[in-house]
Write a structure and sequence with these properties.
With 541 residues, the protein is an alpha+beta fold. It has one domain: Cytochrome p450. Helices cover 54% and strands 7% of the residues. The strands form three sheets. The chain has a four-stranded mixed beta sheet. It has a three-stranded antiparallel beta sheet with strand order 3-9-8. Helix 4 (115-121) packs across helix 11 (244-251), helix 15 crosses helix 17 (378-391) and helix 15 (332-347) crosses helix 21. The longest helix has 37 residues, at 2-38. The mean pLDDT is 91. The structure holds protoporphyrin IX containing FE (HEM). Protoporphyrin IX containing FE is lined by residues 127-128, 139, 325-326, 329-330, 333-334, 337, 393-394, 397-398, 459-461, 465-469, 472-473.
C-alpha cells in the first residue's frame, strides 16, 4: 500500500507540473491563431501581395515599394499589405487618394503612436508625429504664427529674396572654374530661411556648428536604411506601445541607440535656442514677437491651455520638438527639389533656354525676383510644376493612422489601420499626364500660354495633414530657381574622362539624364527621392 500511495503521489505531482505547460501551450496556440487571423487577408479585402502568419507581407514586397505597387498593382486603386499584424492600406490612384485624404479628412488625420518619443524624452510633441488635440493646437498656432511673419505675404518673401541674392553672390565670387557642391550651398540658404523664421537669425551661415546640425537633420530624411528600419518597426508599434517594458527593451536595440543619440543631439540644439530666447524675455513678455520661439513663449504666457491630463499644453520641451520638425520637414525637401530642378534643366536644354528667355524678357539679367513675377513667368511656373511632378519627392507620402472605420474604393477600412499613398504613380497616370515620363511644361499651359496649376499634383499631400509649409516651400522654390536661372548658366563638373580628352565624351544632357535615370536605392521605403550628389560649374550670364 505504501507503493500504491507513492505511485499516486508521483501521478499527482506529474499532473501539477504538466498543468502550466498545458496552459502556456494552449495560450501560445490561441495567440498564434489570433495573430494568424490578423495577418491573413479576407475575401472582402483589397488585393494583397501576400502575407505570412505573424510577420505579415515583408517577404512579398519588392523594392522600392512605389515601383512595385505601380507595376504589380497598376489597375488597383487600393492595395492592402501587412506590417506584422498591422494593416497598411496603400492608395494607388488619385481617385482613392482623394476619397481617403479629402472626403475622409478627419478620419485620416491620425499619425502613428508617440509612445517611443514619450519614453525617451518624457514628453510628446512636434508637428509631424502627433495627432489629436495636441497636434491641432500646435498646427493652428504654427500656421498662424508663420502667417504673421508673412508666410505667403511679404515678410518671408523678403527674407527669401535676400537669401537668394546672397547665394548668387557666393556662387559668382567662387568663379566659373570652381565646381560647387549644390547640396551644400542650397542647403545652407534654405536652412537660413527657416532659421530666420524660427530663431530670428541666419544661424546656418553664422554658427560654425550648423553644418554638423544640418548633416544630422539630413540623416533622418536621407538615410534609407534608417527609414527601412523605421518602417519595419511600424509593424509591431501598436502592440509594443501598449506594453511599456517591451517598448523600453526595443529602444535598447543597438540600431535604435544611434538614432536616439542623433535625435537627442538635435533636440538639445533646439532646446538651447529656446532657453537663450527665454533668458532674454522681458518680465512682461515680448510686446511683439520677432520669431517663432518668441511667439511661442508669448503664447505660453498669455494662454494657459492644458492637455487631457491638466498639464500645460504649450511647453518649452514641445517647442523644441516643433522646431525640430520644422527643420526636418522643411530643409531637405526644398533643397532636394531645387537639385532636381537644376538637373532637369541640364537634361532638357530646350526648356532651360525658354525659361531663361522668359525671365530675361520680363525681369532682365539682374532684377530682384519677387512673388509678383509669378504672374508674368508662365512657362517658368509650368517648368517648376513639371519638376515636382516627376520628382514626386515624398514618394509614399507620410504614414497616416485611420482614426475611425471608413470606406475607400468600395472597401471597408477599420480604425487603427495605417495608410500611405503612391505619389510617384499618381503623378504618372497616363490619362492625366500623357507621355508621363516626358518632361513637358506645356501640359500646364492653356491655349494662350497661361499657366494653369493641375489639381492632380499632390506633392504636398492633401486634407488635414497636408504640408504645413506649402506656401513657404512654393515661395522658396520660385525665388531660388528663378534667381539662379536668371544669373547663371551651369554645367556638370568636368569629369576626368572629358577633361583629359580621352575616353568617350558625353554631353551635358546625357550625363544629366543618367543622374535622373539613377534607380532609387535598393531599399523598400524611400522617404525622399534623392538624386546622387553632384557638383556644378556656374558661369555668370
Ligand atoms: C518642396 C518642399 C516640400 C515638400 C515637397 C513637402 C511635402 C510634404 C508632404 C508630402 C507632407 C506629408 C503630407 C501627408 O502627411 O500626407 C508634408 C508634411 C509636412 N510638411 Fe512639408 N513639404 C515641403 C516643404 C516644407 C516646408 C518648407 C516646411 C516648413 C516650414 C514643411 C513642413 C511640413 C510639416 C510640419 C508637415 C507635417 C504636417 C502635419 O502632419 O500636420 N514642409 N510635407
Amino acid at each position: 500500500s505504501i507503493e500504491f500511495k507513492f505511485q499516486l503521489f508521483r501521478k499527482n505531482v506529474s499532473c501539477i507540473m504538466l498543468l502550466p505547460v498545458v496552459l502556456i501551450g494552449s495560450a501560445g496556440v490561441l495567440l498564434f491563431g489570433y495573430l494568424y487571423r490578423l495577418t491573413k487577408p479576407q475575401q472582402s479585402d483589397p488585393p494583397c501581395p501576400g502575407s505570412d502568419p505573424i510577420i505579415g507581407s515583408f517577404r512579398y514586397l519588392e523594392r522600392p515599394l512605389y515601383r512595385f505597387m505601380s507595376e504589380r498593382f497598376a489597375r488597383d486603386h487600393l492595395v492592402l499589405f501587412f506590417l506584422g499584424p498591422t494593416r497598411m492600406y496603400y492608395l494607388n490612384s488619385y481617385a482613392a487618394f482623394r476619397e481617403a485624404m479629402v472626403d475622409n479628412a478627419e478620419a485620416l488625420s491620425g499619425r502613428v503612436t508617440q509612445k517611443p518619443i514619450e519614453l525617451l524624452i518624457g514628453s510628446n510633441g512636434g508637428l509631424v508625429g502627433t495627432d489629436g488635440e495636441l497636434w491641432k493646437q500646435y498646427r493652428r498656432f504654427t500656421l498662424h504664427t508663420l502667417r504673421d511673419f508673412g508666410l505667403g505675404r511679404r515678410g518671408a518673401e523678403h527674407c527669401i529674396s535676400l537669401e537668394a541674392e546672397e547665394l548668387c553672390s557666393e556662387i559668382a565670387n567662387r568663379g566659373s572654374s570652381e565646381a560647387i557642391d549644390v547640396n551644400l550651398v542650397l542647403g545652407r540658404s534654405v536652412s537660413n530661411v527657416i532659421c530666420q523664421l524660427v530663431f530670428g537669425s541666419r544661424l546656418a551661415s553664422e554658427n560654425p556648428e550648423f553644418e554638423r546640425i544640418l548633416d544630422a537633420f539630413n540623416e533622418f530624411t536621407a538615410n534609407p536604411r534608417f527609414q527601412e528600419e523605421n518602417f519595419k518597426a511600424l509593424a509591431f508599434l501598436p502592440i509594443s506601445s501598449r506594453c511599456t517594458p517591451l517598448m523600453r527593451l526595443l529602444l535598447k536595440l543597438p540600431g535604435m541607440q544611434g538614432i536616439i543619440k542623433k535625435m537627442n543631439y538635435l533636440l538639445d540644439f533646439c532646446q538651447q535656442q529656446v532657453e537663450a530666447h527665454a533668458a532674454e524675455m522681458p518680465e512682461a513678455g515680448f510686446s511683439e514677437a520677432r520669431d517663432y520661439i518668441e511667439a511661442h513663449l508669448k503664447h505660453q504666457q498669455l494662454n494657459q491651455q492644458t492637455d487631457d491630463n491638466g498639464a500645460d499644453l504649450f511647453t518649452n520641451k514641445r517647442l523644441g520638438m516643433a522646431i525640430l520638425d520644422l527643420f526636418l520637414a522643411g530643409t531637405e525637401t526644398t533643397t532636394t527639389t531645387l537639385r532636381w530642378a537644376l538637373i532637369y534643366m541640364l537634361a532638357n536644354p530646350r526648356v532651360a533656354s525658354k525659361v531663361r528667355e522668359e525671365i530675361r524678357q520680363h525681369l532682365g539679367v539682374q532684377g530682384r525676383v519677387c512673388m509678383a513675377d509669378k504672374a508674368k513667368l508662365h512657362y517658368t511656373m509650368a517648368t517648376l510644376e513639371e519638376v515636382q511632378r516627376l520628382a514626386s519627392l515624398v514618394t509614399n507620402g507620410l504614414t497616416h493612422r485611420v482614426t475611425a472605420d471608413i470606406q475607400v474604393a468600395g472597401y471597408k477600412i477599420p480604425a487603427d489601420s495605417y495608410m500611405m499613398y503612391n505619389m510617384y504613380y499618381i503623378h504618372r497616370d497616363p490619362d492625366q499626364f500623357p507621355e508621363p515620363d516626358c518632361f513637358k511644361p506645356e501640359r500646364y499651359l492653356d491655349s494662350e500660354g497661361r499657366f494653369q496649376a493641375s489639381q492632380r499634383l499632390i506633392q504636398f499631400g492633401a486634407g488635414k495633414r497636408a504640408c504645413l509649409g506649402e506656401s513657404l516651400a512654393r515661395m522658396e522654390l520660385f525665388i531660388f530657381f528663378v534667381s539662379l536661372m536668371q544669373r547663371f548658366d551651369f554645367r556638370l563638373e568636368t569629369d576626368d574622362c572629358s577633361a583629359s580628352g580621352g575616353g568617350k565624351i558625353v554631353d551635358q544632357a546625357t550625363r544629366a539624364q543618367a543622374l535622373l535615370d539613377y534607380v532609387d536605392p535598393e531599399h523598400l521605403l524611400v522617404l525622399i527621392r534623392h538624386l546622387p550628389s553632384y557638383k556644378l560649374e556656374f558661369t555668370e550670364l
